[in-house]
Specification:
about 325 residues; 3-stranded antiparallel beta sheet; rod-shaped
């Protein structure tokens, strides 16, 4: 896209940090080599399938080989002008670009450069099996990784919860049964204590009246044993309930520890990111335009600290 002299001077002033007051100006077309190509990138694992336009505008430097890593431009073929601006001048054509037969080999150099040096970089999280998209920023990709890690964490925690819920439900059922048995044992124990107390009272009365017999002694002894057995049943139920409560607490602790481990593991997975370079096959590089391009520049004459200087400013924008 062509730009005005004022815009070109303003850009130069920003770069140099000084004011440029020109005395003379002239639009001059300088020779360069322009290459425009379309590159098709495909990556099976990420599902990437994208075509990208690339361009290089390279100026010859005597007999030196062309440096295709320089002059990256974004130019649409339709934007190229077919006629020069009126009153513009043309610079001399260098010897390196005057041989039309050499352009074929230069075009091959251009394609080889693109094949070996131009690629798309994707971010890959192997833990989450995610790839970024070409237009996705690292921050956006990290946000997507965080969402995916949260989903996987929740799914794993839910699975753990179900696993432990089954175990906890079984323990709770056993505890409820033991509590029912405890209630029955306590009722039995209280009844046995009352019977023993009543039997003891009868034995004392018989002793005082002189009618104590072996049968009474035997009954009292049996009542005592039954009371002790009932008390033992109560203590056994209490111990069983205490043991079950300890097992329940231990399972809950194990669940919390496993949830913590799962949470930390998926949190760490968010930052496990690698860069994957995707290159286009040579057959997937199509040259859309290649050849000599006359590039407009503003030749400006200005005075700098008493010295007359000349400056060449690009009269186009290639971004």
């Amino acid at each position: 896209m062509n730009v005005s002299l004022e815009w070109a001077i303003r850009q130069a002033e920003e770069e140099k940090g000084t004011t440029i007051v020109y005395q003379d100006k002239q639009l001059v077309y300088e020779p360069a080599l322009l290459g425009l190509a379309g590159m098709y990138f495909a990556h099976t694992k990420s599902g990437l399938s994208q075509k990208q336009s690339v361009g290089r505008l390279v100026y010859p430097r005597g007999e030196e080989a062309l440096d295709w890593s320089e002059g990256e431009v974004t130019i649409n073929k339709k934007e190229l002008a077919l006629k020069p601006v009126q009153d513009a001048l043309f610079a001399d054509l260098p010897q390196s670009l005057s041989d039309a037969r050499r352009f074929k080999s230069l075009e091959k150099e251009f394609v080889n450069h693109l094949y070996h040096n131009v690629s798309l970089t994707l971010l890959h999280n192997p833990k989450l099996k995610l790839y970024s998209t070409p237009d996705e920023t690292p921050k956006e990709f990290q946000r997507r990784c965080r969402v995916e890690a949260s989903k996987k964490r929740d799914a794993e925690v839910e699975k753990l919860q179900k696993k432990y819920d089954k175990k906890l439900d079984r323990l709770e059922d056993r505890k409820r049964r033991e509590e029912r048995e405890l209630a029955q044992d306590q009722v039995e124990y209280e009844a046995r204590k009352r019977e023993e107390l009543l039997s003891a009272g009868e034995s004392v009365l018989e002793f005082l009246t002189g009618r104590r017999s072996r049968r009474a002694i035997s009954i009292a002894s049996r009542k005592r044993r039954l009371t002790q057995q009932a008390k033992a049943d109560v203590e056994e139920s209490l111990e069983a309930i205490e043991e079950l409560e300890a097992q329940i607490q231990e399972l809950q602790k194990e669940l919390e520890e496993e949830i913590t481990e799962v949470t930390e593991r998926w949190a760490e997975a968010i930052d496990v990111v690698k860069k994957v370079k995707v290159r286009a096959k040579k057959a997937d590089i199509s040259v859309e335009a290649f050849g000599l391009a006359w590039v407009p520049h503003w030749q400006v004459t200005y005075e700098d600290e008493g010295v007359t200087r000349q400056l060449s400013l690009p009269a186009y924008r290639g971004d």
